[in-house]
Design a protein that fits this description.
CATH class of the largest domain: Mainly Alpha
Strand content: under 5%
Largest sheet: none
CATH architecture of the largest domain: Alpha Horseshoe
CATH topology of the largest domain: Serine Threonine Protein Phosphatase 5, Tetratricopeptide repeat
Radius of gyration: 19 Å
Shape: elongated
Order of helices and strands: HHHHHHHHHHHH
Number of strands: 0
Structural class: mainly alpha
Number of helices: 12
């Protein structure tokens, strides 16, 4: 595939970068275009040992949006944890329903609290746009979030409270789902939750849901 000349030049700048700062600047420039032609290069950057450049690459992938989802899914690196973790963050930010299986697995089993947190946010934000699958996908999102109320890290449980509120505010959420979700929020509000900010966020979610 022939790349547009400006994008090709930006990719070449990434390839030429020989310092961490140089790679960061080149990545930021490529990411700022939001051009799908830069997707593969941005994905490669996720595997580099440069967190700043990885953050910029994730921002670029999110800016590209739906057109890059299949590329991300097809290139998930089972041998490079860092790249896979950054890919989860990108999928969460894009909020495309095709990322649901990856986000489910990440929230349930990823070793990184920040990755599980991103996955929880993603399950709360996914755009369930396919009418033939929306009900089943909403149920999967809710069950994933409900199970994560037992996560050992408070930042994840906080994100779960946020995600549950977002899902439960949907008008298509059925009464059983609403009851299960609110029970999960009450759990985060209960005596078993020892982090005040999590209890406060769960309380806010319940208040907002009660007020419609």
């Amino acid at each position: 595939m022939t790349l547009p000349t400006p994008i090709a030049a930006l990719i070449e700048a990434v390839d030429r970068a020989d310092t961490a700062d140089g790679l960061l600047e080149a990545t930021q420039a490529l990411a700022a275009t939001g051009h799908p032609a830069g997707a593969r290069c941005l994905l490669e950057i996720l595997g580099f040992n440069n967190p700043g450049a990885a953050v910029a690459a994730v921002d670029g992938l999110i800016a590209i949006g739906e057109p890059v989802v299949e590329t991300i899914l097809d290139n998930l690196d089972g041998h490079n944890y860092g790249a896979r973790a950054w890919s989860v963050r990108a999928l969460a930010g894009i909020a495309d329903r095709r990322g649901l299986p990856v986000l489910e697995r990440a929230l349930a089993a990823d070793i990184g609290p920040s990755v599980r947190r991103a996955a929880a946010c993603g399950l709360g934000n996914l755009q369930l746009t396919d009418p033939n699958h929306a009900e089943a996908e909403r149920e999967r999102c809710l069950q994933g979030l409900i199970q994560a109320t037992d996560d050992g890290e408070w930042i994840v449980r906080y994100a779960v409270a946020v995600g549950l509120e977002r899902r439960l505010r949907e008008t298509s959420c059925n009464p059983m789902q609403r009851q299960q979700g609110e029970n999960a929020l009450r759990k985060l509000l209960g005596e078993g939750e020892d982090v005040k900010v999590v209890r406060s966020r769960a309380r806010l979610a319940l208040q907002r849901l009660s007020n419609g």
